[in-house]
Every structure is written in C-alpha cells, then in structure tokens.
Amino acid sequence: xxxxxxxxxxxxxxxxxxxxxxxxxxxxxxSLIFGLAAARAQxxxxxxxxxxxxxxxxxxxYALAAVIGGSVGSLATVSASTAxxxxxxxxxxxxxxxxxxxxxxxxxxxIIAPCVASICCLASGITTMLxxxxxxNGTMLFVCEAVLAGGAAYFIKRTMEIKPMPTGGFCLSNQxxxxxxxxxxxxxxxxxxFSVKGFVPARLLSAFVIILFACFSRETGGxxxxxxxxxxxxxxxxxPTLAATFALGGLxxxxxxxxxxxxxxxxxxxxxxxxxxxxxxxQAVSVLIEAAIACVIFCAIPPQKLEMLKKYAxxxxxxxxxxxxxxxxxxxxxxxxxxINGVSDYIEKVSCSLNRLAEPENEAVFLRxxxxxxxxxxxxxxxxxNCNKETQQAFNELVDIIKNDECLSTDMLSEPxxxxxxxxxxxxxxxxxxxxxxxxKRGTAQRISQIREVVSDQFESVSDLLxxxxxxxxxxxxxxxxxxxxxxxxxxxFDIRVYxxxxxxxxxxxxxxxxxxxxxxxxxxxTQLTRAISKACDRELDLPCIVENPEYTLMTFSQRASIxxxxxxxxxPCKEGEYCGDYFECFEDGNGHxxxxxxxxxxxxxxxxxxxxxxxxxxxxxxxxxxxxxCALRLTNSALLVKGIDESLSTLDVVSIDLFSGKAEFSxxxxxxxxxxxxxxxxxLELSALPxxxxxxxxxxxxxxxxxxxxxVVMVSDGIIGNDHSWIMEELKIWRGNSAQELAxxxxxxxxxxxxxxxxxxxxxxxxxxx
Length: 771
Prior knowledge:
Helix 23 (605-624) packs antiparallel against helix 24 (629-641). The longest helix is centred in the middle third of the chain and has 52 residues, at 424-475. The chain has a 5-stranded antiparallel β-sheet. The chain has a 5-stranded antiparallel β-sheet with strand order 6-15-14-11-12. A 5-stranded antiparallel β-sheet has the order 7-8-9-10-13, with helices on one face. Helices cover 59% and strands 12% of the residues. The chain is an alpha+beta fold. It has 27 helices and 15 strands.
C-alpha cells in the first residue's frame, strides 16, 4: 500500500463520522438478516408475505439489504417460481418505499406501508395467475397473502416507531405491546422449520416470551403474548390448537404472576399439560416439554437481572400518588424548604464573620508601603519608633489626598516626611500603586458580595418554591387515579405515548389534568382529543395548555369555567420606533385563572424591550409551572440582578381573574395605575411598589375586586397616562361596546392625540371584559 493510501486510511479512522459509518453498516447487516428470516416465515404450506411487508416498512436506505436477504431466504425455502414471484414483489415494494420516503407526510403515514405491501403481493399474484390461469383456490391464497402482508407491515412499522423514553427504557401501551410481540413472532416463525426429534425451538422461544410478558405485565401482557405467539407459531407449525393453549396459558400465568416467578411459569406449564392430556397427541406432549424447559430457563435467571430487564423493557404510565401519601409529600417538601432556607442563613452568617475579620483598608495600605519602602531604610527606627505618631499622621494625610483622585508626588509630602524622608519618590510611588490595588480589590469584593447576596437569595427563592409546591399539594383534596387511567387510555387511542398522568381535584372541586407525553404529532386533533378526555372523565375541559421540553411534552387540561374573558391589546412604540419597550402576555394557568402580565422596561427602544420581555417570560413560565406570584417575582428579580453588568429593571403589573368566581387579584411591582369599571362606576387603582431588578428585596403590592359580567379591567403603561388619567375614566364610563380590542385601540389612539409634547414613552393598553 502506498504512503498516500495509508494516510487516507488514517484520516478515515480518525474521522468523527466513523461511528455513523459503523451504525449504518450494522443496520444493513440487521436488515439483511431480518429479510432472510422474514422470507423463511411461512404459513399455509408455503405462503410467505412477511418479507414483502418488511421491505415495505424498513427505512429506504436499508431496503436493498432487506431485498437481498429476502431473496436468499426465498430461494432457499420455496420453489423457483414462487421465489421469483416473491423477489418481484419485494423489488416493487423497495422501489415504492424509496420513492415514498422523499415525502415526509407520506413517510410518516402508517397506512402507506401496509398498502404498498398488499398491492405488491396482489400484483405479483395476479401476474402469476395470468401466466398459469385463474383458479378459486389460487385466488383465495393470493388475497390472503396480500391481507397478511398488509397486516404484518402495519405491526412491523408500529414496532419500528417505538422509541425509548428520555429517562431510559420503554413505556409500552397495550397496542404497542401487541405490535412488538407479533413482530417478534413473525421472525420467530422462521425457526419453525427447524425441529429436533419433534421439538421445535420456535415454540420453546415463544413459551419463554409468554412467561416473560406475563411476569412483567400480568394478565394483559400474558394474554397478548399468548394469543399473538399462539396464532403465529401455531399456524406455522400446522398446530392450530396451540393458539388456544398459549392464550389460556398466558392469561393464567399473568393472573398468578403476583405470587412469584415459580407460580407464574408453573401456571403456564399446567395449562400446556392439560392440553396434552385432552388432545392426546404427540405434538402436544412436545409442547409440554418445551414449556417446562422454558419455565426452568425463566426461573434460573437471577432476580436482579430480571428486575433490571423489567425496568428497562416495560414502564407503565405513572399515576399520581394516592391521598394517603399527600401528607408525606407535603412534609418532605416543607422539610426540604426549611433545610435550603438554612443554607441561606449560613451564608449570611459566615459572610458577616469574614467581613469582621478583615483588616481596615487604610491600615492594609500602610503595612504594604512600610514593608516595601521603609523596611530597608536606615531611618526605620526613627520614623516608626521614636516618631511613630507623627509618621502615622503624615500617612493619613497622604491617604486623604489620594482619595480625592489625585496622584501623589514628592512635593505633596508634608512635615515631618518632607524634611527627613530619604526615599520620597519610592514612598509616593508605592502609595499610588497599593492604593489603586486596594480600590480594585474593593470593587471586586463588592461584586463578589453582590453575587453572594444573589446566591443567598436564590436559596431563599428555592425554599419559597418548595413551600409553594407543598401548599399546592396540601390544598389538593384528592388524586384521581381512575380518571388518570381513563385519560391515559384516551391518549393512547390517539396514538400519544403517555409517560405519566396526574388528575387532581382541589378544595373547590375543580379538576386539573396533567399528562406527560412523548412528541405529539401534528396530525393529532386537539379539539377531538379534549372532547374524548372530557367524555371519559365526565367533565367539560378546555383545550390543553401544551409546554414542549427537550425530554417530554406536558399537556395540562383544566375544567371549563363558567366565566370567559374577552381580551384586547394595543401598543404604540415611542416615536414610532421599531421596538416597543413594553411587553405583555395573557394565558390561562391551568387552575382556572386568566393571567394578564404587563411589563415596562427601563427607558425606551430595544434595550427596554429586552428587559421587559425577559421579565415577562421568566415570570410567566414560573407561573405556568405552578408557582405562586410572590415566589415567581423573587426568582425573576434574582435573574434580572445577575443578567448583566448594567442596571436592568422592569415593572411587573399582573392581574389574575378567577374564571369560576370572578374574583380578581391585582399585583403590582412598579406598574402604572389600572382601571376597573363595575357597572357604571369607574375606579383607578394605584399601588406603590419598587420594580424588579433594583434591590434584593422586592414584593408585590396587592388589591382585590369581585367582577361580574360586563365589568371591564384596563391595564396601561406609563406612556398612556402622562400627567392626567381622568380622560381614561371618562371614556370607560361612556363606553358601551362589547369588543375589548376596539376599546384598547380607542384608548391608545386618544393617548396618542393627548400626549404632552416633550415627554416620549412607549404606550401599551390591555383591556379585559368579563363575559
């Protein structure tokens, strides 16, 4: 090999693409092997549509390998004419598969692959009958082959779509379990042609799988595995009674699985024994012996290995804890909150102690200058022993001079230093250097102190967060595991994989349903899903609030409220600029509250827009996660404090309207006044509070109101009010419209016309009309 070739090989070996190359090669080999196995899986004396089904469902880049494997399997198993028919069908399926894979919508459609497999099998059958002539028996066989190919393609494709959970392992629904077992049985059928003196390895493997699923998923898993394995292997081995034996055996094994592995596998063996006695056939005796061997193998597996396999292979949706566990959860959350809050106290105490131990700054400068300049001077004893008081006074005067932002020089030395110091230049230079170092160190210490204070606040905020969670859990009257199960089943029927479900009913009887799922496909109709879950839970639910995370998707359904809120908003940037320094967001929190947030950033333009958007997004995300307003404000304030070097502050004006009772809660941290119209009376609400991002301690000022149908709430930023707000109150009194958006537009336009010259600011109006 030439040196250039060796160099190229080394480059390839060192390339980061090597793992992907190996991955593709492995999948190519697996596709070839599975294609070979699928071609050897036969029923009805030679009918083998499963290779075509596998080629139609496998990813297009592995289709050629699947065709090669299927062709080899067909040539080695069936007659030449039948093999040619199968190879032609597989080639057609591969061609259509490759074409369809270019279109995402068709590639993800589950109906396409079954249709392709059925059409290809039917087309090859019709071609064969055109050559040899049509017969009723031949027609029925080809139709059955096409139906089996389509059904197998559906199950194989469903199995290929199963993905592990982000935390590891699989959360399989009943449908997915059936698909996995049927797919496995199709390939186990390829082993059915092998037998050793009447013993068939395929039956032995099937019996082991049934016992395994019965142990993992009890009656459901045992029944599904027994029926699927019994039908597939039974027909492949010309033993139809095997389907009933395996189905009943899987059911009883699942029923007895809580009693232990021996009882689970023993129940399956007993059923096989009864079947052998009733049928009085040699083949049934072989099944009994194979079941006994499978039982021995299953019981021989170490318990820790079996438990590890169970945790990884099967994970059922996690319901919420029962009511009896609520107090324990609340207690643990409160204990954790107390412990974390103690960490904040420890940080404060240690910081104060360290500050007390630190030497005064002036003395630190004196010591460094004396060590650097005076220690090797011949007048050291005279200056710092005989005339110590006068020298100290002279050094203090130098510090006072340098504090006034002046750089010391030799002519600034006063008596007695000016008359006797023989190192005047070195003295002033050392003073300048060490004082500047002290100032820099002081700034660093202040910044560290600020960061330490913010970190301490973060611990307190986390403590508040846990207390808020404990309060929320404590207020929950009951968890509803049965409703959680019903909602999970509805989601599975919509092809949504469920990881965890929590159905809560609070002290007011309002239901909240949270479902943690995998990726929700765009084809899922949210309205139909909501109606189906509402019917299953016997409650009217609103459309879900969906939050997508990298690891999972969270859907939150809340009970439909009797009150609706019409919202309208209008914004006018300062000087008709591109960015508005105000930011707002409106949403339902999942607990029956309409939440409106308005933030006014410091100044105008893009910088104010960033500050306002940051404050609003952080605060709203925390509220959506279930935190209380006060806790969310503290965390938002901490985030603004550490956002950057420059000062960053924003007001937070929040209104929360209970959609069941009509009670409104007004929370202001620096926000402008709000306006409320009840019937024909209008009131201005102004609460004094500091905005977020200035000081460590920030709190909401709050007020409350009971709203009814037709009442109006208006939130504005400072730019709307100007020097006078009476015109807003007059406009609200005479307003008779029913459109919140029209009212917001009208108020913003009136503010534009009435704006005082010389005072420019962003303007935002949000109107809410109770319906």
